[in-house]
C-alpha cells in the first residue's frame, strides 16, 4: 500500500511534534539543573531520549512504507517554571496535547484506510495513556510534599534513579 500524501504529511508533522517534545524535555532538564534538582533533571533527560525514540519510530515507519521523512524546523521550547510542581503541570498539559495529536492521526489513518499506520498508532495510544498516568502520579506526589524540603529531596532522588526504557512507579 502506497502512502497517501495526506498521511505522509501528517506523519512528518508528528515527527516534528515528537522532536519538539524531546527538545522541551531537554530544556526542562537544564532548568532543573539550574534549580539544583538533579534527579528531576535526570528524569527529564531520560524523557528526552524516549521522545526521540518516538520520533524515530515514525521516521522509520515512513521509510519502511516508501515515504520520505522530512525534518522540519523545531520551535524553541518555552520553559517558564519556578517549581517542580509547575513543571509537571506543564508536562501533563503537553502530554495531553500529544495524545490529542495521536488521536487525530489515528482518525486520519482510519479515514484513509491506512491499516499499517493504525497498527503503529495502537502502540502510541497505549504509550500516551502511560505518559499521562506517570505525569499525573508525579504531580500528585509533588502536591503531597509541597513545602516539605525533605519530601522534595526524596522525590528528587527517586526520579534520579529512572533508567531509559524503564516503567515508571512513582
Domain module tally: 1
What is the class in the CATH system?
Answer: Mainly Alpha
Assess the beta-strand content as a share of residues: under 5%
What name does CATH use for the topology? Ferritin
- Kindly state the mean pLDDT as a whole number? 94
**Shape descriptor:** elongated
Major sheet, described briefly? Answer: none
Q: What is the second-level CATH architecture?
A: Up-down Bundle
Radius of gyration: 17 Å
- Count the beta strands: 0
Low-confidence stretches: none
Number of helices: 5
Percent range of helical residues: over 70%
Describe this structure in words.
With 170 residues, this protein is an all-alpha fold. It has one domain (5-160): Ferritin, core subunit, four-helix bundle (Ferritin). It has 5 helices and no strands. It has helices at 5-34, 38-64, 84-111, 115-145, 149-160. Helix 1 packs antiparallel against helix 2 (38-64), helix 3 runs antiparallel to helix 4 and helix 4 (115-145) runs antiparallel to helix 5.
